[in-house]
Automatic annotation (TrEMBL):
Keywords: Membrane, Transmembrane, Transmembrane helix
Protein's UniProt name: Phage holin family protein
Tree of life domain: Bacteria
Organism for this UniProt entry: Actinoplanes utahensis
Regions that span the bilayer: 54-80, 86-106
The keyword Membrane is annotated on this UniProt entry: yes
Stored InterPro entries: Phage_holin_3_6
Length: 138
């Protein structure tokens, strides 16, 4: 028959409580990590959408520039060969496409400059979490 002293029993309770505490901290850190990953995903998705819209505008600018080159070519041909009203009309249309292409390019370039690939909120919260882990009391 083994006799347990009250001191042995309090050690087991302390060990169980410490084990539970470590388990709880581990669970909390796992949940915090998952939340940080979700925040990073949301930020990256938002920035990718901005980049996609800007790239679309730059693509439209390229298409407009292509049309401008084609129409300016036709205008030059008609204008130089015949110096007719049809050639000048083609020149006006081509110039309008060139202006539209320039406007789309400038707008797309400005929007592309606002894209930031760094998930700032996630970085800030990770820094805060690191500070808390180093000094949980304040």
């Amino acid at each position: 028959m083994t006799v347990h002293s009250p001191h042995d029993q309090s050690d087991r309770v302390a060990q169980t409580s410490l084990g539970e505490l470590i388990g709880n901290i581990s669970d909390d850190l796992s949940q915090l990590f998952r939340q940080e990953v979700e925040l990073a995903k949301a930020e990256l998705k938002q920035e990718a959408a901005k980049a996609g819209r800007a790239a679309g505008m730059l693509g439209a600018a390229g298409f407009a520039a292509y049309l401008a080159v084609v129409l300016l070519s036709f205008a030059a041909v008609f204008g130089l060969a015949n110096i007719m009203d049809a050639g000048w009309a083609a020149l006006i249309v081509a110039a309008a496409w060139a202006i539209a292409g320039a406007a789309l390019f400038v707008t797309g370039r400005k929007r592309l400059k606002t894209v930031d690939p760094v998930p700032h909120r996630t970085v800030d919260t990770l820094k805060e979490d690191a500070r808390w882990l180093k000094n949980p009391n304040g």
